[in-house]
Amino acid sequence: MMFTDVILDYYRNPQNKGVIEGADIHARDTNPLCGDVLEITATVEDGAFKELKFSGNGCAISQAAASMLCEHLAGKPVEDAKRLTKDDILKLLSIPISPVRLKCALLGLKVLKMGAYEHLGMQLSRDEAETL
């Protein structure tokens, strides 16, 4: 599989990389299949994401997807995170993702949803988590 220049640019020059101290949202998970580790922190103001950051390490796809996701949701309602789907992430990445790399691409979405649901006083269902 060939990476597009955009994916490699996000990987080499990630946007929103770091940790927000005192964040309203904090979630972390791993992809044991390839060793990706991802943590997302976010601040919320008036029900919307004020700032989002990610940290961790992993392959170009997982890191680029997390960076793009943080950028995509900045300023949007936390509720929007609940509605994001696998297809939304694949559209952001805009490259074909093999079944083996799908978990890499979706790790950021899973972590963000875990944090958003917790912030909203809800729990991500096991079924929903497993479809990511």
Integer count of domains: 1
Average pLDDT number: 90
How much strand?
A: 15-25%
How many strands, what sense, and barrel or not for the largest sheet? 3 strands, antiparallel
CATH topology: Sufe protein. Chain: A
Description:
The protein is an alpha+beta fold and 132 residues long. The chain has one domain: Sufe protein. Chain: A. The chain has helices at 5-12, 60-73, 78-83, 86-93, 102-119, 126-131, and strands at residues 25-31, 36-45, 48-57. Strands 1-2-3 form a three-stranded antiparallel β-sheet, covered by helices on one side. A hairpin with a 4-residue loop joins strand 1 and strand 2. It starts with a helix and ends with a helix. The model has no long low-confidence stretch (mean pLDDT 90).
